[in-house]
Write a structure and sequence with these properties.
113 residues, extended, alpha+beta, 4-stranded antiparallel β-sheet
């Protein structure tokens, strides 16, 4: 199954949280681990819940599912939020980060005790 087929299937069903996607796929006959969660992006805090985009990988393809990822009330269920998840294809975008170089011992600043 391709990422596009999974996206189409998710968008045609009532999926109330990205957190249960693996269970839904397992119920459809796929092995657990068929898709791998790789990131959570774009958090949006609301009074009773938090929305986010959860990025999944299947093979070499990526797709995202936008929906509630946490509830802030024990009396609520994800369906109570009233936000049906939406799925879409995604691309991996490499990024650059920086770290400090190791400074040789003789060049390290002196620290007062």
């Amino acid at each position: 199954m391709t990422a596009q087929e999974i996206v189409d299937q998710i968008n045609s069903m009532d999926l109330w949280s990205p957190g249960i996607l693996e269970d839904v796929l397992e119920d459809a006959g796929f092995d657990r681990g068929f898709v791998t969660e790789v990131a959570k992006l774009s958090y949006d805090e609301h009074r009773w819940y938090t929305l986010a985009t959860v990025v999944f990988q299947v093979g070499s393809e990526f797709f995202g599912v936008r929906g509630p990822v946490t509830l802030k009330s024990e009396n609520m269920d994800y369906e109570d939020v009233g936000f049906r998840c939406s799925a879409f294809l995604m691309d991996a975008v490499p990024s650059v980060t920086y770290k400090r170089r190791n400074v040789p011992t003789q060049e390290q600043p002196h620290v007062l005790p």
